[in-house]
Amino acid sequence: MSASVVAETGTALTDSHVVFADRETHEWYRADIDEDGNFSADLPSNTGYDVIFFHQKQGDLMRSAFDGVPVIADLDQIRVENEPMELGNYTVPEGFVTTIQVVDSNGNPLENVPLSFYTQYGAGTGPRSFTTNADGYVTHAASSEAGIELAGSMTIRTHPASANGELLDTIFVDEEKSLTVTLRNPEEYNGIVVHDDSGDVTEPPPETQTPPASDSTAQSIRTKPEQTAAQQSSSESSTGDNSNSVQRGFFSNGANEPEALSDPMNLTVGGFLLSVAGIVFQMVGGK
Questions:
Q1: What is the pLDDT of residues 116-146, one digit of tens each?
Q2: Where do the segments described as Disordered lie (predicted)?
Q3: Domains and CATH numbers, the chain
Q4: Is 117 exposed, middle or buried (0-12, 13-18, 19+ CB in 10 A)?
Q5: What are the residues whose beta carbons fall under 8 Å from the beta carbon of 176, sequence distance 6 or more?
């Protein structure tokens, strides 16, 4: 399997390579591009492949220089049969500088966000080449200059909080553009720094704890509420000192009844004698 490739802008592609991605097994077969733009690979037959251009040497980071070539681009979809194939000539489309800022749901810039960029065929740039600076703008890991060169339909994802990262946006690039995307869950990623509008670092909130009960709340739980003056007056009148209350006699309501008639012992003995007299009367009267 052999072919050649050139850049639409005329930029040399000797620091780039092409991938043949098996559409069924997702196995990749890589081929370096030589100084004349040629590349070749031995591929299993009777298999379909996506052909993708990467602006990088195998094993290196993506190219950081802005040279009019996109960092990644779809070239073709082919099927390899038993016979050797000559694919012909491919052209890598022009890449346009795309300025992307990543913010949280409050609009605060996010630093150190790991990002990947995917083509329509599903090939991506990987986790090491692109991140964000203190202002939240996408930069190459080896450069402080904001921006990335893209072309055509691209999907922007974080890498790799979940299996495929969080989808931030899908865009179509055919000219220079700027955009802002929102990362909803920056707390799930290690190393992401949140900057507020003044540029200060926003610390993560402390662990939330239930505050202890206030003194007034604790007091209401431990003790009864104080009585009002009216309640105190009513209570004192019903349960207070009764030394000045009127003493009632046993046989009368007067206070001048003879003491002997109110003595408990005299009353007990008197009652017993009256009971005995009643029994004797019944016995005599029954004869």
A1: 999 999 999 877 789 999 999 999 988 888 9
A2: 190-257
A3: 2-194 (2.60.40.10)
A4: buried
A5: 96, 97, 98, 99
